[in-house]
Task: structure prediction
Amino acid sequence: MRYLGLKLFNLASYVYLLVTSLFLAGDFYSPGDMVYVMPSPFAFSIWGLIYLLLFLYIMKSFFADEALNEQIRKIGLWFPITMILSGTSVILGTTPSILFLSLSLVTLCVVYTNQTLAGATKFERAPFSLYLGWTSIATIVDAFVVLKANGITELFGLGELGWSVILLTVGGLIAIAFGFLQKDILYPLAFVWGYGAIFAYQENSLIRFVTGGFVIVLLFLTIFRLLRVKTYRMTA
Result:
């Protein structure tokens, strides 16, 4: 079996991610961590789907054809490193966790890029699309939690609400652009889930306007793209 050592390392890193997340981590966020970008607790259930899809991908790798083996080779150690960083971020204190979470976002981008260059199918990209999308949102949330935990209420003359609106807007625009450029449906849907959970949990009207607006736009664009693909296949 080709790349058996790398595949076993992927599996071991996945087990580490699962154990730290399910058994060693405390609550995702405490009531004292309340910030404007905090989603409803139900939002974190998306990890269950991400764990399942990652597990299926790793298991499939042990029975890989030549194309999937080449994909695994191109991704290399970036995948297990990402899972180790993600798993470590949930067992550290509030401030150091943002470093590991941000690094996992960077390495996930490398994984996604290498996988795409290797010609991955949309089903093979699915775990990483959701993983990358949710980690993007989690990084925004964690950044505000860290700032609040360190008593920082204003940055460059702008308060928490202002920065929340800016980063939520930037995140939503990135999700739109990413979906179009990568022809990826799941990455924007991760934002639909996350922003919908923020909309459901927050009472500030401006935050609800921004998140609710992006949920509508992202859903519309996703449905439009699905219908366009279906129409193209019917006429091809």
Q: What stands out?
A: Residues 205-235 form the longest helix (31 residues). The chain is about 75% helix and 0% strand.
